[in-house]
Amino acid sequence: MEKSLKTLSINNGLVLGLILSVITVLMYALNLDLFTKWWVGIILFFLSLGIATYSAIKFKQHQGFLTFKQGFSSYFITVAVGSFIATIIGIVIFTFVDPDAATYLNEQILIMSKEAMEGFGAPQETIQEALMKAEKVNNFALVEQLKAFVWRLLFYSIFGLIVALIVKKNDPASE
Q1: What is the spatial distance between Cα 107 and Cα 32, in angstroms, rounded to a whole number?
Q2: Does residue 172 register a pLDDT over 90?
Q3: In the prediction, which pLDDT does 15 show?
Q4: In this structure, are residues 36 and 109 in contact, taking their beta carbons and an 8 Å threshold?
Q5: What would the pLDDT profile of 78-131 be if each residue is shown by its tens digit?
Q6: CA distance 90 to 140
Q7: Rounded average pLDDT over 153-161
Q8: If DSSP codes are grouped into helix, strand and coil, which group holds residue 169?
Q9: 130-138, long-range: CB < 8 A, 24+ apart
Q10: Cβ pair 14, 81 in contact under 8 A
């Protein structure tokens, strides 16, 4: 992999990580309930997708062409670096700085889960069983946040494959 691809992608990943970290800290400081809002996740997803796509496009502009592998690599490195930084910030906040915030958010997630299952008409015993299982999981524990990071990378990879297909451009010298 070219040094400039790695450098550009890592730099864009650092920018993404900084933005996601600032948003995380602001959400923590201003309103913890924002962590439970679905629309916040959608905004963060599109922000990450946009910056990672920008990274691939920028490398294509720099080089004049972009292979599928280079497009995916640029996208993936950007997302991986940015998400890793944001995950570390989340771990620091919810594991070391304020574990009570994690407890509060876990309780809110349980309430939302119960309301959603009731809204779908799930039987009461199914709801109780699901809530008992969910109570045992601390979504903000170190291991759970690392698992979420891995799942996030897998999810973003699907979009990375699509982005790489869209932005790739063959080397004119090889045609």
Answers
A1: 12
A2: no
A3: 98
A4: yes
A5: 999 999 999 999 999 999 999 999 999 999 999 999 999 999 999 999 989 999
A6: 8
A7: 97
A8: strand
A9: 134/109, 134/110, 135/110, 137/106, 138/102, 138/106
A10: yes
Q: How many whole angstroms separate alpha carbon 67 and alpha carbon 77?
A: 15
Q: Which two tokens stand for residue 138?
A: 């601390």
Strand, helix or coil for residue 117: helix
CA-to-CA distance for 64 and 169, rounded, in angstroms? 8
Domain boundaries, the chain: 3-169
Range list of H helices, 92-167: 99-119, 124-135, 142-167
Angle at alpha carbon of residue 154, lines to 115 and 14, rounded to 5°: 100
The burial class, CB within 10 Å (0-12 / 13-18 / 19+), for 171 is exposed
How many residues in total does the chain contain?
A: 175
What are the CA-CA distances from residue 9 to residues 2, 73, 75, 121, 129 (Å)?
11, 8, 7, 46, 44
Cα 107 to Cα 161: distance, rounded to the nearest angstrom: 36
